[in-house]
Specification:
Elements (H helix, E strand, L loop, with lengths): L1 H4 L3 H8 L16 H15 L3
Length: 50
């Protein structure tokens, strides 16, 4: 978006209400996140009918 509009990173982030560091930091998930999600879904399936 920033390049398309030809504005600086600072201006683009201010307009969007975002911290500038969010544009550089690569989001990292937890190593066990997929397994935790599967466990939650399994538990939810067990208790939905109660």
């Amino acid at each position: 978006m920033r390049q398309e509009l030809g504005v600086s990173e600072r201006r683009a982030c201010r307009a969007l209400g975002q911290n500038r560091s969010t544009q550089r930091k690569v989001q990292q998930g937890r190593a066990d996140e997929e397994r935790l999600t599967e466990d939650i879904i399994e538990l939810a399936d067990q208790y939905v009918g109660l």
